[in-house]
Fold these 2 entries.
Entry 1:
Amino acid sequence: MSMLNIQGNNLTATTDFFLLGFQGSQSLRIFLFCFFLVVYCGTICGNLLIITLVSTSRNLHTPMYFFISQLSVNDIFLSTHIVPNMLHILLNNGGTITIAECVCQFFFFSTAEAAECFLLTVMSYDRYVAICDPLRYTSIMTAEYCAKLSVTCWLIGFSIIIIDIFTISKLKFCGPNIIDHFFCDLLPLQGMSCSNIFILRLEIFFLSIVSIIIPTIIIILSYLNIIVTILRIPSRTGRQKAFSTCSSHLIVVSIFYWTMFGVYVFPTKVETLSVSKILSLVYTVFTPLINPMIYSLRNKDIQKALKNTIQKFKTVETRLGAGHSV
């Protein structure tokens, strides 16, 4: 692990970090490796299935499913930048990463997290228009408008994170270069810096407001209006049908924002040492796996599209088999 002396003081500048990951016996680490590998494969397959179904099934060519597919793209992007390196760390009982690689990992991770915050907000807006203003839904949520909203989510996420990345890249890191985490997150980087991080803290505060607080307020307001509208529906069947279109999104939002608030908005000293690592597992490893499961298991349209796709494959196989037999 290389170091570089700083002239004029007794501090030592760190040029790389050592990620501890999950420490334990070799058998435990092998078990965790196999477990997280299965989770990662399930995440990729599940989200690719959602993307494929939405792109190939005509009955899923609606704004809601378009945003679900965008969420799946984001989940694949997020998992791919975290889990493979975590698996490498588990096999080697830790791993060295340069500052440049660490900052890049944090950038891609943060961009994906910020984009997911905005995508979930846009999805709540979509449900708000569908339930509270159904007569104008098709004229408002056009394909072009949905594409613009999706691109905007990524652009805003990229833009606000790049400001933090510029500041972090200027920091000097001194002393112990061991990070008790499985990826380069903001809290350990902030704690290991020997530079003045006042500006960084201001940027983090701004980032929390833009990417977490404001989206949360918009989602809450959207669902308050949705609930009021649903309660006004005279028939019980109509109320259940309207609420069923929102329940999956509410579950995903609850899981995602609960962990985000726990780690970044209201962290405690205990969390920064141990619990934050577990919470980080939730939104970097398990949430990308859970999202397609929630949307597929609780969604009749996706279940129907999956059955139709399987039936098409069976029909093609039958025709191919008949052709070979001839």
Entry 2:
Amino acid sequence: MARIRPVLDKIADKWTILILVVICPKPSRFNEIKRRLDGITHKALADALKRLERNGLVTRTVLPTSPVGVEYAITPQGHALREPFEALCDWALAHGGEMDAASERFDQRNAEA
């Protein structure tokens, strides 16, 4: 467990999974990623992308355009997370309603107690 937790701390935060799912099919520019991730702030996305680059999961390429653009792409190491992350997203879609219902039942039981 001592070797697992630090790795999970780097990939299992609020935005990392969703960012990697967005850029996995094709490299994307910052604003494109932001548009596809409803609710993420500019700062949160910038910080997350910096962290992902630092951890070797994405690359950042400055594009020779005017104005200068930046494109983010997934690395082979990051790409290896695609299958488990997509499975997790599929699971969330399939079971999110069940979890909501369980939470509601729990809250009702505890409100009555």
